[in-house]
Specification:
CATH superfamily of the largest domain: Chloramphenicol acetyltransferase-like domain
Pfam families: 2-oxoacid_dh, Biotin_lipoyl, E3_binding
Shape: elongated
Helix content: 25-40%
Pathway: Amino-acid degradation; L-lysine degradation via saccharopine pathway; glutaryl-CoA from L-lysine: step 6/6
CATH architecture of the largest domain: 2-Layer Sandwich
CATH class of the largest domain: Alpha Beta
InterPro entries: 2-oxoacid_dehydrogenase, 2-oxoacid_DH_actylTfrase, Biotin_lipoyl, CAT-like_dom_sf, E3-bd_dom_sf, PSBD, Single_hybrid_motif, SucB
Distance between the termini: 93 Å
Largest sheet: 7 strands, mixed
Cofactor: (R)-lipoate
Structural class: alpha+beta
Radius of gyration: 32 Å
Strand content: 25-35%
Number of strands: 27
Catalytic activity: N(6)-[(R)-dihydrolipoyl]-L-lysyl-[protein] + succinyl-CoA = N(6)-[(R)-S(8)-succinyldihydrolipoyl]-L-lysyl-[protein] + CoA
């Protein structure tokens, strides 16, 4: 009786593969789950195990042939022809796949990334192939345009295959890795550690056949195989190895023109440089800020505010405030309240342009810019216009902690209508904040500094802060921008105006 060896499922949207290498030839005895051949797709390499013990009969698809899913690869004659010797001789390599087959294979999928976000970058793998994992233990971290997403293990077992390495781009709902779950999972680890061993011996002169697609690309691009590090079985060179080497070769000469004028010191300078790829968050920050400059007619107006009244009020009530509400009374709640008050009088600062329409918002979703180790993020305090001082302070504290811990969700940063940015916490005395599109206004706070001021005809020392309002001049006129900033100044210099709605 004969058994057919067919092409397995290759992955989502992958319909064909190339037969890269046959590990057995017709007439060879094979054991159950012993690797027969290796297939190569656009993204991954797939090993095809033997579905039965016996003797390899006819090979229908030779190396280099393109085959579709479920296509016939070869046949196996079952029965007495199967010799146990190959399995015994290669125990470390064959026992692991057999155990993996006994265990349930669980897919690790890319979780939902948020509204309108379709892809992410694999930032860090916390586990490697062969590691035992517990249910809900963090396997890797994905990075989107705005937030980092941790991916937990869906089941306990052993990580058997990582489908996307660090730096790879993955789509929402895609497959990240495979876990062998259940009692048989623990013995899969030797397979992961056994593979690299022969690779080290490859340079000694072993005759290792490279993947046909890799040979083709090397021939077309004139790449010396000796310069390519192989990641396949026994150190064989795969298609992705050649593409990686080709990319590195193209990228390497790029600095040459800049280095040419300073040839005497270029080598030493290059040795002291460090090139680090921008994170997706940093790339998005750069793109959005530049788009803001290119799109909006951005202008900034300045004023200064005497902070003595706010500081006196805060000092008088901060103890009672914290005791009653369980949160510290800071300056941000005063600025948020003052901005809400001013936005009611100058609603175009709280509006946005949509094509040839102006969309006025009858609510205030206040964005609070926060610096984190990963970059600038702007969590949003929704319906800030309906909140009390205590509710605002609690919301800011919660969003700030989530931002620092990288726990902000996409929903936490969407829908803002106006933004406050506090550069003063870093010591900035004056700056021109950049709009957070599609918003039309952003208020910049700065360092509080004692300065001599004339009050009532006398020179006195006052705690002063410069304020900056950047606005989109397409929708906000100079009069409206100055009026807004003056109203913020008046509310802060006399907080009683907020109570009286003046």
């Amino acid at each position: 009786m004969s058994t057919e060896v067919k092409v397995p499922t290759l992955g989502e949207s992958v319909t064909e593969a190339t037969v890269a290498t046959w590990f057995k030839k017709p007439g060879d005895a094979v054991a159950v789950d012993e690797m027969l051949c290796e297939l190569e797709t656009d993204k991954v390499t797939v090993e095809v195990p033997s579905p039965a013990a016996g003797t390899l009969g006819e090979i229908v698809a030779a190396e280099g042939d393109t085959v579709g899913v479920d296509a016939l690869l070869a046949t196996i004659s079952e029965g007495a022809g199967a010799a146990p010797a190959p399995e015994a001789a290669a125990a470390p390599a064959t026992e692991a796949p057999a155990a993996a087959a006994a265990a349930e294979v669980v897919d690790v999928m890319v979780p939902a990334l948020g509204e309108s976000v379709t892809e992410a970058t694999v930032a860090t793998w916390f586990k490697k192939v062969g590691d035992a994992v517990a249910a809900d233990e963090m396997l890797c971290e994905l990075e989107t345009d705005k937030v980092s997403v941790e991916v937990p293990a869906p089941a306990a077992g052993t990580l058997t295959e990582v489908l996307h390495a660090e730096g790879s781009t993955v789509e929402a709902g895609g497959k990240l890795a495979l876990i062998a779950a259940g009692a048989g999972a623990a013995v899969v680890a030797p397979a992961a550690t056994a593979v690299p061993a022969p690779a080290a011996a490859a340079p000694t002169g072993a005759d290792v056949e490279n993947a046909p697609s890799a040979n083709k690309i090397m021939a077309e691009k004139g790449i010396d195989p000796a310069t390519v590090a192989g990641s396949g079985r026994d150190g064989r060179i795969m298609k992705e190895d050649v593409l990686k080497a080709a990319t590195a070769a193209v990228a390497a000469p790029a600095p040459a023109p800049a280095a040419a004028p300073r040839a005497p010191v270029a080598a030493s300078d290059a040795a002291r440089e460090e090139r680090v790829k921008m994170t997706r968050l940093r790339q998005t920050i750069a793109k959005r800020l530049k788009d803001s400059q290119n799109t909006a007619a951005m202008l900034t107006t300045y004023n200064e505010v005497d902070m003595k009244a706010v500081m006196d009020l805060r000092n008088e009530y901060k103890g009672l405030f914290e005791k009653k509400h369980g949160v510290r009374l800071g300056f941000m709640s005063f600025f948020t309240k003052a901005c809400v008050h001013a936005l009611k009088e100058v609603p175009e600062v709280n509006a946005e342009i949509d094509g040839t329409d102006v969309v006025y918002k009858n609510f205030v979703h206040m964005g609070i810019a926060a610096g984190t180790p990963q970059g600038l993020v702007v969590p949003v305090i929704r319906d800030a216009d309906a909140m009390s001082f205590a509710e605002i302070e609690k919301a800011i504290a919660e969003k700030g902690a989530a931002a620092r811990d990288g726990k902000l969700s996409m929903a936490d940063m969407q829908g803002g209508t106006f933004t406050i940015s506090n550069g003063g916490v870093y010591g900035s005395l004056m700056s021109s904040p950049i709009l957070n599109p599609p918003q039309s206004g952003i208020l910049g706070m700065h360092k509080i500094q004692d300065r001599p001021m004339v009050v009532g005809g006398e020179i006195v020392i006052r705690p002063m802060m410069y304020l900056a309002l950047s606005y989109d001049h397409r929708i906000v006129d100079g009069k409206g921008a100055v009026t807004f900033l003056v109203r913020v100044k008046e509310a802060l210099e006399d907080p009683r105006r907020l109570l009286m709605d003046l």
